[in-house]
Structure formats: C-alpha cells, structure tokens
Design brief:
Blueprint lengths: L8 H14 L10 E2 L6 E3 L2 E3 L2 H9 L5 E2 L3 H8 L4 E6 L1 H5 L1 H18 L5 E6 L5 E5 L2 H15 L2 E7 L4 E7 L1
Parallel strand pairs: 1-4, 5-9
Antiparallel strand pairs: 1-2, 2-3, 5-7, 6-7, 8-9
The protein binds zinc ion (ZN).
Zinc ion binds next to α3.
Length: about 170
C-alpha cells in the first residue's frame, strides 16, 4: 500500500507548518551588511560605498552580514542597461586624456550609487571605444561629461521597454 504513506498524520502536520510560514510578512534584509564584491555597505535600506554610510554601519554595533549587493549581482549576470560609444579622430589623438576622465566620472558616480558600474570596456576595431554600463544613468552621465569637457557630437537614445540607454559621442 504505497499510497497510504502520503496521508499519514505526519504529512498533514508538516503541511500546516508550511502554510503558517507563508502568511508572515517578508523580512527586511539584515543590517548592516557588506558586499564581498565591492565593499559596499548596506545600511538604512540602501547600498552605499560612501564613508558616511560605512560609519553609520559600524555605528550600529551589530555584526555585519555578508551579502552580494545589487550592483555586483547585476555585474555577475552581466546585464547592461547602458552603452556609451566613443569614436572619432579627436578621440584617437586624445585618448590618453579622455579615458582617465571617463574612469574618474565612473568613480564619482559609484560613490553616489554603487549600482553605477562598468560591465565591459571594449576597444573597437578602427579605434573606437564601447563601454557597457550597469545603469542607464551612468551611460548618460559619461556622455554629459565628455560633452562638457570636449564638446563634440553627442546623441542619446533610449529604449524604455527594456530600460536601455545608448549614448554616442563623436569628435
Ligand atoms: Zn557589491
């Protein structure tokens, strides 16, 4: 009688426990937490890399949970939400100035929000550069930074459907 076993008293007891758990409200993630990928801390319900947040987290005087932050999870899964395409003769001859400017801008953006990360930095054949960003905002921000520093032609394109920003800068 194989089927009889599925309806023992024990089975029903276990099911009741399960249902009870389902009605509990979702638990807020533990604070403070630190991300092993980038060192960001989770405090006051957000991830941050700022010194102020780190102090807040330490100030809680509670043990740190270790949890991968949203930005690192996104980077691991490699889903870009923005692309910056840079090319032109000016870019080729001023590359040694332009690339550090872009890297600085990324660092500044990451201090505001650790989600703003570079997923891929690709040299294109023919001298261009293609940067894949984890957020739409970062691609736009890099485009603005180039425009502000060097003028040039900049175009912004969006696909709201799949949350994708494409930015072209040419000079
Ligand atoms: Zn992280």
């Amino acid at each position: 009688m194989r089927s009889a076993k599925a309806f023992t008293n024990q089975t029903f007891t276990k099911r009741v426990d399960h249902d009870g758990g389902r009605h509990r409200p979702p638990r807020a993630p533990a604070e403070p937490a630190v991300c092993p990928g980038c060192g960001a801390v989770y405090v006051k319900r957000r991830w941050s890399r700022s010194a102020a947040s780190r102090l807040q987290a330490v100030g809680l005087a509670a043990p740190f949970a270790v949890r991968v932050c949203a930005a690192c999870r996104r980077r691991q899964h490699g889903v870009p939400h923005g692309y910056l395409h840079v090319d032109g003769d000016f870019f080729t001859t001023h590359r040694s100035d332009i690339e550090p400017l872009l890297r600085n801008e990324v660092e500044r953006a990451r201090e505001d929000n650790p989600l703003h990360q570079i997923l891929a930095w690709t040299d294109l054949e023919g001298g261009g550069l293609l940067i894949a960003t984890a957020t739409e905002h970062l691609a736009q921000r890099l485009g603005h930074a180039l425009e502000k520093a060097y003028d040039g032609d900049v175009h912004y394109g969006f696909s709201h459907e799949n949350k994708l920003a494409r930015v072209w800068w040419h000079r």
